[in-house]
Design brief:
With 374 residues, the chain is α/β, with parallel strands linked by helices. It is built from 13 helices and 12 strands.
Amino acid sequence: MRRFAAQFDDLARLDDCGRLRRLIPRAGRDFASNDYLGLAGAPELTTALADAIARGVPLGSGGSRLLRGNHDEHEALEPEAARFFGAESALYFSSGYAANATLLSTLPQRGDLVVHDALIHASAHDGLRLGRAEVRSAVHNDTDSFADAIRQWRAEGGTGRAWIAVESLYSMDGDRAPLDELVALADRQEAFLLVDEAHATGVFGESGRGLTAGLAGRENIITLHTCGKALGCEGALLCGPQIMRDFLVNRGRGFIFSTAPSPLMAAAVRAALRVLADQPGRRQRLRDLSQLAADRLEPYGALRTGTQILPLILGDDVRTMRLAASLQAAGFDVRGIRPPTVPAGTSRLRISITLNVEAADVEALAAELESLAE
């Protein structure tokens, strides 16, 4: 096994500093998942799957979309999703990671510039490494930093297109991007704005259309709506102008060379979109529960974010994981998050509020945090 000496040494270093990851089964009350609206096990989705199976919709696609994997369910989902999110077109991917990486490695061209928020998702970073455009980082949620990066690039002779890449709601901090300011910047610079709505889709905006709902239909905005979080399914939808879809179908390696998503999952996503439109009460219940959680957990260090994500930043890796383990032992599924997922010195408990818990569970979590602080 010494052939893996470098790997053994690396894992040992991670273990020494309290950063070794392990898979653990789900258990306890859900304060960890991204199933914000509790749709993953909702009867509306299971019924939709049963109906699709009865219609003969297969589990597997059997190939890439450009071969025989393109099913009627994919073809039905994409225009329906485009209408729902107010876009000219949509393209369905097997995961948000694949969609983000494919988008950023494909659309920006050689001679272009991509300026991304410093805290953007790992999938975006991986896509940018595969792409041909120049890449620069901007200070988190600082519009002036984005503007300065573009201005400096232009001053250095940059003549291509500028692309601004952000998340609308950041998954580890629970804060929102200054979208109105970024749209104005994109307009001034004739730039494109790429917005990952992963943690806002289903939760915010009219009918759960996300924080970009009021910007629907703009030619210089492309949005990514993941289906594996508030929608309770799997996959992701890239929504934007028709040229985006056509170009990714022809040039996006992450799309061209991947087996198509399950047609059954496409049917489930369509059902989830209908739930978003028909059941606004779910979003209101989540808002109320998130408000209660902020009120009850803030005294123990949780940050009040105005969203369903409440980070409790502890700083030290080992302390973070010990507190997470104590909460898990008490029946609360709260996970510790360490670098490199978050910046060094900001290890935290990521407390996620979902409709899989009730007010009594929030009160119980607050009581447990109080007992652990004594």
